[in-house]
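[retry 2/3] Beta-lactamase-inhibitor-like PepSY-like domain-containing protein: previous attempt timed out, resubmitting with same input.
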Amino acid sequence: MKQILVIILLVGGTVFSSQAQKINALKVPAAVSAAFKKSHPAANVKWEMEQANYEAGFILNGKETSEVYTPGGTLLETESTIKPSELPVTVLAKLKGKKIAEAAKITKADGTIHYEAEVKGKDLLFDVNGNTVKN
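[retry 2/3] Beta-lactamase-inhibitor-like PepSY-like domain-containing protein: success.
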């Protein structure tokens, strides 16, 4: 019984620590804050840590949006929520018959676009051609 409890605590701790953690804006490096404010001077932002990077969550054009920055202030990607019906036809074809809870468009700093679809609690990632992309 004791071993089961220890395993549950270890698994729970691992899951908790792998998720983004909210942080105070004062703890965000100046380079990150400056890069974000340059692009979005009037945005109301909430910050989280995503592994070693900083994620800014805000509303842009009425859509939930997030941007991920390195500690040096380099933008890595932008993710915006979209309606599941706004996914490319190629992605929708791969998910035919499945219920899509949420969807997002992810634009990498190099211009590469991926689409994310949440199906049965799992985030599935696709390229613009509908091919599966590994996280």
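[retry 2/3] Beta-lactamase-inhibitor-like PepSY-like domain-containing protein: The chain has three helices and eight strands.
[retry 2/3] clearing retry counter.
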